[in-house]
Amino acid sequence: MCDSPHDHGDHGHHHGPDLVENARPEDFRVVISGKGGVGKTSVAALLARMLARQSWRVLALDADPQMNLPYALGIPAEQARALLPLSKNADYVEEKTGARPGQGWGLFFRLNPDVDDVVERFGVMAPDAVRLLVMGNTVQPAAGCLCPENALLAAVVNAITLRDNEAILMDTQAGFEHFGRALARGFLHALVITDPSFNGIQAALHAARLARDLDIGAVHLVVNSVRDSRDFDLVMERLEDEGDFPFASRHRLPYDERLRRCEPSVAPLLDDVSSPLMRSLAGLLATLTGEDRVIPETGHNFDPVIRHIAEEWEDRLPCVS
Question: Does a structural domain hold residue 303?
């Protein structure tokens, strides 16, 4: 069984001004990107709930049409299935833009609708008091940016990135549409996630360059599902062969079989703080919140505690041929 005592509810975590010293939630604006199947949603859910347990107010955005983030966060399946994404909420789209989705070309609609009420009206509470907003994506085939639902989503992201006293993470769909339509504009950090595969690395480099073009200040590389040091070394070699990228930091997350066994919810991992995966995620979170130290010339982690964690789990993993 993959049960966890923290699967449901608030659990008494206090959300208020007692945030990590010297860290401001307004600085935590993180968009998560990468090829499909590399673990974007699991990482987003784990980081969101870890932040919440550290007394941050957290808003998680699901911008993936597959809508898996509610399940990963631990929202009960029946409730998760009933969630209506904003892009399919025809009444709200019409209310805010003046046009209903799918009514055809030549529509007149507001490009910058006022959506300051969106979180209060449609945000749902996930375990650990993480607030979730399911955005969805374009529902009109080949509509590009010339449709009211796209205008609404762009306005929602713009409004959300201006919210005070709230840490924000956005889980995105596979591919790069969120960069092409500038939905990621206004985020301060981009987490580019890859696995050790060639296709994953290619997608990560493309996403990193698009994030830089959107003026996202810090682009971080996360190599997920690493089984031993050779996996990580292979990624570094392939990055170098492809011209590399000046990542603000580079992180490796060890493979954990429990993520597969207990999917979709990440809850069972949260209470095992000694696990290699959770300790590596703590190091990643320390970088994103500014609690570690980074060498400017290389962008590599300089925190000796985090370095020790990486070495420790690497020694404990089996050597995989």
Answer: no
Which residue type sits at 108? F
Whether the CB-CB separation of 152 and 13 falls below 8 Å is answered with no
CA distances from 321 to 35, 229, 232 (A): 24, 12, 14
Tokens matching residue 287: 């970088």
Residues in the chain where the model's pLDDT stays below 50: 4-22, 139-144, 293-321
Q: Among candidates 116, 118, 115, 98, which has minimal Cα distance to 107?
A: 98
pLDDT (tens digit per residue) in 302-311 = 333 334 444 4
Residue 288, token pair as written in the block? 């994103």
Find the CATH number of the domain harbouring 246: 3.40.50.300
State both tokens at 219.
Answer: 């682009």
| Distance between CA atoms of residues 70 and 76, nearest Å | 8
Find the domain containing 261 and state its range: 32-272
Is residue 95 one of the residues assigned to a domain?
Answer: yes
Report yes or no on 62 lying in a domain.
yes
Strands in 249-254's sheet, in edge-to-edge order, are 124-125, 131-134, 58-63, 167-172, 29-34, 189-194, 218-226, 249-254
How far is CA 188 from each of CA 18, 172, 185, 201, rounded to the nearest angstrom? 22, 15, 9, 22
Q: What own/partner pairs with CB < 8 Å and gap ≥ 24 does 303-309 have?
A: 306/282, 309/276, 309/279, 309/280, 309/282, 309/283
Question: What DSSP state is assigned to residue 248?
Answer: S
DSSP state of 301: B
pLDDT 10s digits, 221-265: 999 999 999 999 999 999 999 989 999 999 999 999 988 888 899
Total count of domains within the chain? 1
Q: What angle do CA 162, 168, 172 make, to 5 degrees?
A: 110
Using the 8-state DSSP alphabet, how is residue 319 labeled?
Answer: P
Whole-model pTM? 0.81
* CA-closest candidate to residue 3, choices 185, 284, 271, 247: 271
Picking from 226, 170, 171, 179, the residue whose alpha carbon sits closest to that of residue 200 is 226
